[in-house]
Design goal:
The chain is of the alpha/beta class and 207 residues long. It folds into two domains: 142 residues, Rossmann fold (3-Layer(aba) Sandwich); 64 residues, Wheat Germ Agglutinin (Isolectin 2), domain 1 (2-Layer Sandwich). The protein contains seven helices and 13 strands. The strands form four sheets. Strands 5-2-6-7-1-8 form a six-stranded parallel beta sheet, with helices on both faces. A three-stranded antiparallel beta sheet has the order 12-11-13. A two-stranded antiparallel sheet has the order 3-4. A hairpin with a 5-residue loop joins strand 9 and strand 10. Helix 2 packs parallel to helix 3 and helix 3 packs parallel to helix 4. The radius of gyration is 18 Å and the shape is elongated. The protein starts with a strand and ends with a helix.
């Protein structure tokens, strides 16, 4: 039975790796998986899904206002589609999440959506995540470990001196070196851990 599945995690937990592995699995089985990513995310180039372990693939860069269902329907008219895989789903709109569900229900093909659940302010990332949590058939967590060994459930943003930043803009594309995934207690404490502290620029810490 086809399903809309939301794979969520904190940052640097291997979401893109999981997506690319799934795409490879469909390809190896003779299937055709359509890959999408948000046009907002240009870290590896617009329309490019890249994993930190060195694998990558081209994807359709979905812009705000585009109809995901219509795009997939046009593709299905040309060739069978085995699945739809979406990276950085937190940047989509609630309407596009509803369109993803419509793909599952109308065409009976699975949609696998990968994204971040919480932002660095300790809130759900945005309306798309809220919509997914409400209507997804399956919700799965991709786990990551905090520097203390506990499961990381929060994203901590920090400034050049290592101090936690819990205000301001949520989205900062390309600022991965200013974020770390931590457990809730260390998010509350603003503790980035010994490895990140050791990598801080001494002048910034002194300031």
């Amino acid at each position: 039975m086809a399903a809309l599945t939301f794979f969520h995690s904190t940052m640097n937990a291997g979401k893109s790796t999981h997506l690319l592995q799934a795409a490879h699995g469909y390809s190896e089985g003779g299937g055709n998986a359509l890959l999408f990513t948000s046009a907002i995310d240009n870290r590896a180039g617009v329309g490019r899904i890249a994993s930190r372990i060195g694998i990558a693939a081209d994807a359709y860069p979905l812009h705000a206002g585009e109809d995901l269902f219509d795009i997939v329907a046009r593709s299905i008219a040309l060739a069978p589609v085995s699945a739809v895989l979406i990276d950085e789903v937190q940047f989509l709109s609630p309407a596009q999440i509803q369109q993803a569900a419509k793909i599952v229900d109308h065409f009976q093909i699975p949609v696998l959506a990968f994204g971040i659940k919480n932002n660095s302010l300790g809130q759900l990332f945005g309306p798309a995540v809220c919509e997914l949590l409400a209507i997804a058939d399956v919700i799965k967590e991709i786990e990551r470990v905090c520097h203390c060994g506990r499961k990381a459930t929060m994203i901590l943003r920090y400034d050049p001196s290592g101090q936690a930043v819990k205000a301001g803009a949520v989205v900062e594309i390309g600022g991965e070196d200013r974020y770390i995934s931590v457990c809730r207690p260390h998010w509350m404490e603003g503790d980035i851990g010994p490895t990140r502290r050791a990598a801080l620029v001494p002048d910034a810490v002194a300031a």
